[in-house]
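FW: tagging you since you asked about this chain on Friday. Here's the raw sequence from the shared folder, copied in full. Didn't touch anything.
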Amino acid sequence: MELDSDLITNTYAAIKPATMRTPTVHAARLSLHLDIDLYLKLENLQHTNAFKARGALAKLLTLSEAERAAGVIACSAGNHAQGLAYHANRLGIPATIVMPEGTPFNKVKRTKDFGAEVVLHGSGFDESVQFTTDLAAQKGMTFVHPFDDPVVAAGQGTVALEMLEDQPDLDVIVVPIGGGGLMAGMAVAAKSVKPDVQMMGAQAALFDAVKAQFDGAETHFAGATLAEGIAVRAPSAANMAVIASHVDRVEVATEAEIEAAVFDLLSYEKIVAEGAPGAGLAVIAKHAADLRGKKVGLVICGGNIDSRLLSTLILRGLVRDGRITRLTFEIDDRPGQLSEISRIIGEAGANVVEVIHQRMMQSVSLKQAELEIVIEARDMDHVNETVAELRAAGFQVRTASALE
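HL: got it, structure written out here
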């Protein structure tokens, strides 16, 4: 079976009754911030909070009664797992999901909550997939690949049909890429509707297999990435062939850029997104000059980010923006110093979050004390204004990131 526009159109008709039509919204604040016209396709609102539910359902609907009875199995870092588990449970099909060890707890729990049996194996997708295919053969289950399947890719491609129906004058569509199924399906669908639309892929710099193949360059694999949903070492050859013929460019983003982009989606647009769409926004921000004057669409492909990771990311984002800063003082060890410092900070419009006042574990002289105060401010300019007021009052103060 070949991935083409007819397959995508027919697949859309099949999955539409059980698929959420997610909105494509104008990102007003980010558009101002980046000086481009940006629209977001909110697949984080899809069933199981990711686009993967589309492709999973598409595949399940093609199974025979015997295949349904035998059950399905998949290997996934999370979103494909949840999408397959959700629709399999809804259709009464037994599902087993193999997940890499170290998969975020929330993804494991949600997959189990949808009724699937979860098996943890391997350190990543590429190590887990062989184990999964072997298990499928042993138990006679149908293996549902997360991206190397034309039916699955066709299901993902339906995202582009909705985007261009909602915003037909999009000039560029930015799509995060891991194994290439979402991009391959969307590129075929988008080009069939609007041949001149530009398709731009986004990858994490630590897992840039698609960009490397696309550009004929060296591949980089190193460490862990916030965008674990697109951390794929070996994209599908079939998807790569489609990407080579239908995609205009593929760009990468660093971990710092991805982290900042996830924070910006939350801060500017109040959208909870995982690392993969963060890579998409990071690439847009990185190449904003090239996109100026164009109407740009970005797929917010998933929102399944671990809550503890998100809380740390938010704190780090506040620190980067200067909204949380640590001030360190060397003060005379006498009454009234702390109250005077607090008064100046308050009058400057900043807020004291935490105070650490110590005498013993320090290098200052015996008659002095070291004081650390974490403050909340509007931004770095406000921090600098507050510090200037403190120094004008005679206090020796230095600033540092609250996370250092």
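FW: The CA atoms of residues 123 and 220 lie 18 Å apart.
HL: agreed, and The radius of gyration is 25 Å.
FW: great, closing this out.
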